[in-house]
Amino acid sequence: MARETPEVNGGSLADIAFLLLIFFLVTTTMDIDTGITRLLPPEPEKDQETEVKVNKRNVLVVLLNRSDRLMVGGEEMDRFTLKAKTIEFFTNPTNSTTLPEMVDTEIQFPPGSSPLLPPDGVWRGKVSKGVISLQNDRSTTYGKYLQVQNELVAAVNELRNNFCNLYFDKDYDELNTANPFEEEIYEGIRDIYKMNISESEPKNIGGLN
Amino acid sequence: MAKFKRKKGKGAQRINTASLPDIVFMLLFFFMVSTTMRETEVQVRVTVPEATEVKKLEKKSLVSYIYIGRPVAHVARMYGTEPLIQLNDKLVNEEGIPYESVQDFVLFEREKLPESDKNRMTMSLRIDQNIPMGKVDDVKQALRRARALIINYSARKEYREQGRQR
Asked: Count of domains in chain B?
């Protein structure tokens, strides 16, 4: 009779595997990168005239000084009112002459995409010429700067979202840009509410403490 | 006194656990494959700020990372405690606006992308929230010159209650 080979006890194998599993769960990161995507302006050509004349009413100057104090259009403000201010600036609800000019524009949406649009799908309305000029000092903290960026982006996102909800009964970020029909809507709304935020050339603007 | 009879002498049927290690190994392999070990060692301390309007970065292969922060302890011994710029895995050692380092970095990273994606390269700026903007402005200027214009200010998602006023 052949001798039996002693069997290795496999009972603890599960424990070992669990230990490894937990080790990997703890040490690895499933980090999803999130952030605010922005587009930098291209560097001006050497011979190009950089000064572009912009009507004063079309510019909202957002200033962050070196002690992180925020000034919007000449008055001091905290960042929680900045969003409302930005929305007012971009929509000019009262047709004020101190807020940006609104230009009659036609924007093509897919025909029949919304009951609020005429059958040919052309939206006729006013689009703001406003530009926000975001300026900061070299000593402004980055965290504060990003909070301000965030409020500005939030304002434009809210305008886009409201439009999208009203006309297409959908959230703006739910539009699937891989689908040409929805992409046209996406780009149409993007053109109505442009993200006109200019980050100016860096300079020292100082500021009191 | 056999008032309490045992039912047939045995307890509940035992579940066969012989396949448990297999299941756990499967989970293990799933996690090993789906997660990534960070291949770059970040030599500066970065706590990114919080923001409400963050979006996910879609294609990881298009993304290169720029870190700005104060150096971690062992690096600080060599470089001091002033904020440093790290491009993917190397620290920038250039005075003033780091035009050259960023230019080289952008060219090198762009070279790695397929032709169709070259103009979609995204620079993820992972910047510590307490860094003064001076360094950030420098990097932005250098990126403009290097024509890497799509940037992403890395931030964590902040959840804010509706209609919060202060």
From this structure: 1
